[in-house]
Amino acid sequence: MSNLLVIESSARQQGSISRQLTDEFLVQWQAAHPSDQITVRDLAKNPVPHLDETLLGGWMKPADQHSADEQAALARSNLLTDELLAADVLVLAAPMYNFSIPSTLKAWLDHVLRAGVTFKYTETGPQGLLTGKRAYVLTTRGGIYAGSNLDHQEPYLRRALAFIGIHDVEFIHAEGLNMGGEFFDKGLAQAKARLAEVA
User: Fold this and answer.
1) Boundaries of every domain in the chain
2) Does 16 belong to an annotated binding site?
3) At the N or C end, where does the chain have fewer CB atoms within 10 A?
């Protein structure tokens, strides 16, 4: 039995293609792995605050010096980090906004990329602590960006996940979704076909 952690980051609840892909992936995954436990965190329904001085205080100050707000910020970060630590498989649903990821997803990453918890500093540089996990990143894109210098999404997420020790990462892109009928149909069909293979 494995634990899946699914992170939804689309700003839209209705009409979201990334949510559609996530739903299809989970149906197929559950059919193939019926005993797996699935946790879904929706960053649009329950936004994570952006990194601020309160959270930094919760991380860095001794516990007996925390304000009530710092305690609450630390507790929230701990919850998000614990979900990630417990997961064997991470699924990130990440529509492309302005060539990169939604700010909600960046805020989540800022809560879980934590020194001493998900990575550590060593004499030879930082070392990820979340080895042995897999990640699937489901992206939706209005244009076609894979491999181009306008894609700041896949390189950033690969680097961020590798930084915490997750190197087994597969990207499934649905591209060309705003380029007209044929491009939309082809981009979505290719993504769904790949989802079926990996699930």
Assistant:
1) 3-198
2) yes
3) N
On whether the CB atoms of residues 153 and 100 are closer than 8 A, the answer is yes
Cα 179 to Cα 59, 143, 182, 187: the distances in Å are 45, 6, 8, 10
Output the pLDDT for position 1.
82
User: Rounded mean pLDDT of 10-31?
Assistant: 94
* 134, 168 Cβ separation under 8 angstroms: yes
Q: Is 99 helix (H, G, I), strand (E, B) or coil?
A: coil
Task: Say whether 134 sits in a helix, a strand or coil.
Answer: strand
Residue 103 counted as an annotated binding residue? no
164 is in an annotated binding site: no
pLDDT digits (tens, 9 = 90+) for 150-170: 999 999 999 999 999 999 999
To the question of whether residue 3 is assigned a binding role by annotation, the answer is no
Superfamily of domain 3-198: Flavodoxin domain (3.40.50.360)
Please check if 99 is assigned to a binding site.
yes
Any binding-site annotation on 179? no
- 10 labeled part of a ligand binding site: yes
pTM (2 d.p.): 0.93
Provide the pLDDT for residue 195. 85
